[in-house]
Write a structure and sequence with these properties.
The complex is a heterodimer of chains A (about 450) and B (about 325).
Chain A lengths: L3 E6 L5 E6 L3 E7 L13 E8 L4 E3 L4 E3 L5 E4 L7 E6 L4 E14 L23 E17 L9 E4 L5 E5 L3 E6 L7 E5 L12 E6 L6 E6 L4 E5 L11 E3 L12 H5 L3 E4 L5 E5 L3 E6 L8 E4 L24 H16 L9 E3 L5 E5 L4 E6 L4 E6 L15 E3 L8 E3 L11 E4 L5 E6 L2 E6 L4
Parallel strand pairs in A: 27-28
Antiparallel strand pairs in A: 1-2, 2-3, 3-4, 5-6, 7-8, 8-9, 9-10, 11-12, 12-13, 13-14, 15-16, 16-17, 17-18, 19-20, 20-21, 21-22, 23-24, 24-25, 25-26, 29-30, 30-31
Chain B lengths: L6 H15 L8 H32 L4 H4 L24 H14 L5 E3 L5 H5 L30 E3 L14 E5 L5 E6 L2 E6 L36 H12 L8 H5 L27 H9 L7 H10 L1 H4 L7
Helix pairs in contact in B: 1-2, 1-9
The chains are: A mainly beta (about 450), B mainly alpha (about 325).
Protein name (chain A): Serine/threonine-protein phosphatase 2A 55 kDa regulatory subunit B
Keywords (chain A): Repeat, WD repeat
Family (chain A): Belongs to the phosphatase 2A regulatory subunit B family.
Amino acid sequence: ADIISTVEFNYTGDLLATGDKGGRVVIFQREQETKGRPLSRGEYNVYSTFQSHEPEFDYLKSLEIEEKINKIRWLPQQNAAHFLLSTNDKTIKLWKISERDKRAEGYNLKDEDGRLRERFRVTELRVPTLKPMDLMVEASPRRTFANAHTYHINSISVNSDCATYLSADDLRINLWHLEVTNRSFNIVDIKPANMEELTEVITAAEFHPHHCNVLVYSSSKGTIRLCDMRSAALCDRHAKFFEEPEDPSSRSFFSEIISSISDVKFSHSGRYMMTRDYLSVKVWDLNMENRPVETYQVEHPRVLSRASCPRPVCVSNACPCPQVHEYLRSKLCSLYENDCIFDKFECCWNGSDSTIMTGSYNNFFRTFERSTRRDTTLEASRESSKPRAVLKPRKVCTSGKRKKDEISVDSLDFNKKILHTAWHPMENIIAVAATNNLYLFQEKVN
Amino acid sequence: MECTLDAQSLISISLRKIHSSRAQRGGIKLHKNLLVSYVLRNARQLYLSERYAELYRRQQHYPDGAPLLAMPACPPPAAAAPPELAALPLPADTQDREARSCGAARGGAELLEVPVCAVPPELQRAPCRDSSPGFYRAAGSAGPGGGGSAAPGLLYAAGCDFASGGAPHCSSRTTVLDLDTHVVTTVENGYLHQDCCSQCPCCCQPAPGLASPPPAPGTKRKYYPGQEEEEEGVEEGEPGGGGVAGGPPFAPCTKRARFEEYSAEHPQDSSNISNLISIFGSGFTGLVSRQQADSEQPLNGQLCSKQALASLGAWTRAIVAF
């Protein structure tokens, strides 16, 4: 139950929140540099732990509601306290995380242990004073936004106006005000009149980082729609529609599954957005709807697609080698059988939008430098992650001869997957969640 | 990690996934089930197109088509036995079960025949409107009870009460009903017709499990632990209530006719999933009951998947919708 289900840095990067399948939220705080321990800068230690969601049972529908935290999103900090939104399948909660390092002592009418003092003992007025105490971090639920979603919530996104946020389920997107819990506005509804006509669902949604009227949502068909809330109250009609035409030669039984988008993220600049489907990451320019500007194959080109291809330079989908396509199909088939093909990988930008990162199988995660197209594969594992050790890039070999340190395609462990990653908003620190372990890596500074 | 890409095995894997999703914690995941239904559709299309190709090849060998036309008629147990798939205006009753078990009993012969309704044998010979090329009859099924080489999963309606149906037919015609999409395919001397059983009262949800009066709208049924919307109770109830009456939740056949394709490539999206996703009145009890009826038949793995295919009409509805 402590499988990590979401990872998110706050706006300054000092706090890192993780949610797990058991409904718990753990917040890590970055240690400040101190003279005594100069090397401890950059370490994240547990700051607060609390139970955000509990399992519920909907008696009306005989439906159990999982407590798994699907998403956490921080609010921009406005005072000493920190606020975050956490959501499970049905309910979103606003949590306030605050520090308490002083305690009031010397009450007039109460003893130190809280018992009322006897009246005759109260002979003079005693004004309580604040005394320092050990730091205590409290998390308290401030708002609960419930009963607005019939389907499973997959995304929440805080608007740049810091007053509203959206929550998206499979078929609808709702707009909330952070102060108002008893009402939300439906802004996107793709539910067909006849459920038999359902062909796609919403898989992710996000507000634009700067324009508070713009949002995007991705679908299971591999399309992204951009909506402008100024145009209408109900944004069923998109303002922009992003879709890359399918390559007909690559059709298979599983074409629909592998084209389903699992995550969509705006770049920090707001000019681009990135989508993750099962095999690739695509960067889109918001001004160009007909195809992405960059496409990165996440799995090594030969892992899932062309491992048996005798032509070593075969990289295109139109490879005529029958055994290649056969390999792909059989691989996808077994991934379909063990449900791995439904894994929803996330992706993230670095602070300057120069590099993108996403997770993969075998506890590998990959970073792609956009300008040089250089990609790096790294592994998050206990053996290779001693503190302060430099991670060695991994390589997946596909041909028969396996070099030292290479991993052979067939020994990839598809049960070890990195679905959730996060990049510090300003520095090169990344958080990588591998099942129930959280790894934090920092760029080595000489 | 080798895996057979046999369409049949993919179909049974997919159905298993759909079935187990109902028991999953947190309710039915709409997204996953939608994707599984796409795989199901793709596999089914491939399977059906292969069957069709086989049929076509055999037709070429038998131009007079006589053996092909034999409509193995399951001796109707009684009059008015609605087919499992045609949840007709006829009330589901014991005859229903008889018809089903009759059809089920034939499962062992690889050809699952479902008498659409009790009609005199001569009408049964009439080309019924049958659906989908998907489930077309394999050549060589000759005679009642025949079907040794018939395509598994061929559901054909023998006889129908389509008032408008029953056109005179030349002997070289074979018609097949896809009980799922309710599209009729007529193979005439190797030339294919396709029409839709429009006013077919049979164009209703299969309701094999409805042995009892259909549940009232909004009634919760245990087969849908994942039902998420109460207002969809209308949809749920309707298949039961309306389904028996040929109710509205099931798209008119004309829509489904558009769905039919003979090639497996580029399935149209329009009504593609429509017949795969809907509230299915009896969930998987249809299969369960049929399997029980089949217990006297030797069931091997292959037969199971063929049964699965045969009941695909029922199964493909078993997904998700809320």
